[in-house]
Structures are given as structure tokens and as C-alpha cells.
Amino acid sequence: MATTASDIIKIIGAIVLPPLGVFLERGCNVDFLINIALTILGYIPGIIHALYIILKF
Q: What is the mean pLDDT of each run of 10 residues along the chain (57 residues)?
């Protein structure tokens, strides 16, 4: 699966603010709430989760 321009925008958003990347990919659902919790607990776990959600095939 090729990476599109919208995926690049989501990845940049996920690095700057992890819940933003998840919101752009999935909307407001359980993944978004999990990512907010992970970002509050630690910035790096939030980024890892966001990148996982965006890049999951």
C-alpha cells in the first residue's frame, strides 16, 4: 500500500500533536480517547500509538 499525501499530513500531525493524527484518521472514537490518555501519560507512547493507527494496513 502506497503512502499518499494525506498520510504524510496525518503523520506530521501525529508527531506535532498525536491525538490530531488519530482524529484525522479515525474520527472521534475509542482510538482517539486511548491516544489522548497515552499522550497525557507520556508524549512518546502517544506518538507511537498514533503512527500505529495511521500506518496500520
A: 82 93 92 95 94 87
